[in-house]
């Protein structure tokens, strides 16, 4: 059976726990088949309704899509550390969820003389690594791969509303309990919140990543959750709304997880979902982790 046919027949299967196929040295085994990076991209996009999209940020950011895949790494950001890890594994294809060059469209004309940009570009070229962004399409996948990943990490995959997967219904739990759960399951050292820690919550509106103030605020007004749980916010928008909301006597609370930690599990989900479709090509998730240290 061809890889393409096998991929299309199995793409709707539930994610499996995959152990990376690596030798004792930690490097990938040689692929049992030869696929170009573009062929892998095409196979992935075949599973996304409407893809490839005419206007999208999901494009090649560095490298050559015609080269043969030696291994695949999924990650949130193709950081210098992730690039170095990819090279040490013998892989040459990074699938990143977010920009590589510090702006949404990965425009680089303004960075041509920047030393950091030149260092990173040279590192990618030296190791023959291609970077492709997988942002719009993973969110358009049915179900949303990022949401699936983070819900699984939290143990809430069975608690999502079937029609509105961003609505999570759990047994009544205190805000404090949910804070502790998120920190433990997502590996968060510190997170921000607005609300009473003893407040009981059962209806959660969960918007990972950066949904924007208007969507965050509008969704709260529409869905009336006990808790809004998000990735990140603009501090002049959603947090100020919640400050006034609490002062008005309403009980809805807010948890801000952080953008990276709220979506990173989705790229781990991608690795587990993609691996069975690519016989002999190892797919491994390398987390980019939070950029900040806490004082």
Molecular structure report:
The chain is of the alpha/beta class and 295 residues long. It has two domains: 163 residues, NIF3 (NGG1p interacting factor 3)-like (Udp-n-acetylmuramoylalanyl-d-glutamate--2,6- Diaminopimelate Ligase, Chain: A, domain 1, 3-Layer(aba) Sandwich); 104 residues, Udp-n-acetylmuramoylalanyl-d-glutamate--2,6- Diaminopimelate Ligase, Chain: A, domain 1. The strands form two sheets. The protein has a five-stranded mixed sheet with strand order 1-4-3-2-10, sandwiched between helices. β2, α3 and β3 form a beta-alpha-beta unit. The protein is globular. The N terminus is likely disordered.
**Would you give the CATH topology of the largest domain?**
Udp-n-acetylmuramoylalanyl-d-glutamate--2,6- Diaminopimelate Ligase, Chain: A, domain 1
Helical residue percent band: 25-40%
Major beta sheet, strand line-up: 1-4-3-2-10
Low-confidence stretches: 1-32
Shape descriptor: globular
What is the CATH architecture annotation of the largest domain?
3-Layer(aba) Sandwich
Count of the separate structural domains = 2
Number of helices: 10
Approximately how much beta-strand content do the residues carry? 15-25%
Query: CA-to-CA gap between the ends?
Result: 55 Å
Structural class: alpha/beta
CATH superfamily of the largest domain: NIF3 (NGG1p interacting factor 3)-like
Note the quaternary state here: single chain
Taking all Cα atoms into account, the compactness measure Rg is 20 Å
CATH hierarchy, class of the largest domain = Alpha Beta
In round numbers, the mean pLDDT is: 90
H and E string: HHEEHEHEHHEHEEHEHEHE
Described by strand count, sense and barrel closure, the largest sheet is:
5 strands, mixed
Number of strands: 10
């Amino acid at each position: 059976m061809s890889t393409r046919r096998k991929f299309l027949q199995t793409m709707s299967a539930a994610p499996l726990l995959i152990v990376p196929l690596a030798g004792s040295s930690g490097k990938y085994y040689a692929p049992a088949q030869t696929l170009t990076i573009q062929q892998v991209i095409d196979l992935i996009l075949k599973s996304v309704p409407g893809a490839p999209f005419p206007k999208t940020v999901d494009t090649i950011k560095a490298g050559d899509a015609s080269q043969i895949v030696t291994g695949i790494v999924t990650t949130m950001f193709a950081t210098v550390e992730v690039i170095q890890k990819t090279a040490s594994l013998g892989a040459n294809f990074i699938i990143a969820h977010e920009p590589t060059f510090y702006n949404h469209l990965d425009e680089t004309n303004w960075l041509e003389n920047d030393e950091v940009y030149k260092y990173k570009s040279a590192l990618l070229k030296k190791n023959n690594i291609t970077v492709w962004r997988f942002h719009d399409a993973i969110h358009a996948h049915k179900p949303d791969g990022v949401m699936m990943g983070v819900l699984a990490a939290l143990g809430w995959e069975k608690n999502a509303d079937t029609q509105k997967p961003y609505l999570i219904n759990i047994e009544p739990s205190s805000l404090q309990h949910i804070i502790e759960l998120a920190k433990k399951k997502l590996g968060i050292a510190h997170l921000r919140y607005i609300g009473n820690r003893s407040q009981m919550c059962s209806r959660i509106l969960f918007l990972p990543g950066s949904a924007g103030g208007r969507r965050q605020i509008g969704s709260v007004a529409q869905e009336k959750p006990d808790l809004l749980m998000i990735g990140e916010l603009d501090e002049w928008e959603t947090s100020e709304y919640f400050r006034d909301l609490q002062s008005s006597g309403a009980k809805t609370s807010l948890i801000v997880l952080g953008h990276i930690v709220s979506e990173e599990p989705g790229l781990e989900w991608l690795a587990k979902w993609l691996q069975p479709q690519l016989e002999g090509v190892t797919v491994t998730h390398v987390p980019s982790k939070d950029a900040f240290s806490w004082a």
